[in-house]
């Protein structure tokens, strides 16, 4: 038995936006959750391209690297390989876990929408859907084609949360990290995990509608 909070599965696939997934892992670790990690082959390439983080593919070494990077406690992070079919996420009888695919490639989106289950990430998502567990998918593509949109609609109707990596600006970001935290905060909201990454709408914002109208009128003048 461990003292960690319930596990959350985080899968990184081959879309741009590896920073979102890596930051999510760090925040989940800091919040005390056990974190189960899967990283696709394409995601390793994206991580190497977009960041200065070096992550090995072999699960045991990956655990060591992520533990050092995130400051996790021993045993807090578990990593599973592409075809580790004995992983708990591969079966509905395994330990229940909310799952986040972040970033989610449109290829993964398609595979999950059609129940392909060609690798452990796809199978874990399939299990989450059939067991009615929380599944959040964070696609990062632009523009979306009708194929992408139809797959998103199909998944949404099954209860999957489609949360595009589309950061807002009302918190007045000053750094790239602020934009990353905006998306991670929205993911945490869906998981029901408390955080202070980004102020919630209305917090510390005292501007009234009349103030806004006056500012607009002043600008127009």
Describe the structure.
This protein is α/β, with parallel strands linked by helices and 221 residues long. It has a single domain (5-220), classed as 3-Layer(aba) Sandwich (Rossmann fold), CATH 3.40.50. 43% of the residues lie in helices and 14% in strands. The chain has helices spanning 18-30, 41-50, 59-70, 106-113, 120-130, 146-157, 176-191, 209-220, and strands at residues 5-12, 33-39, 77-79, 98-104, 135-139, 161-162. Strands 3-2-1-4-5-6 form a six-stranded parallel sheet, with helices on both faces. It is globular. This is Flavin prenyltransferase UbiX. It catalyses: dimethylallyl phosphate + FMNH2 = prenylated FMNH2 + phosphate. Dimethylallyl phosphate binds at residues 170, 186.
Mean pLDDT: 92
Terminal residue distance: 67 Å
**H and E string:** EHEHHEEHHEHEHH
Largest sheet: 6 strands, parallel
**Stretches where pLDDT falls below 50 for ≥5 residues?**
207-221
What is CATH's topology name?
A: Rossmann fold
Q: List the total number of helices.
A: 8
Pfam family, one: Flavoprotein
Keywords: Flavoprotein, FMN, Prenyltransferase, Transferase
Binding site for dimethylallyl phosphate: 170, 186
Region (Disordered): 202-221
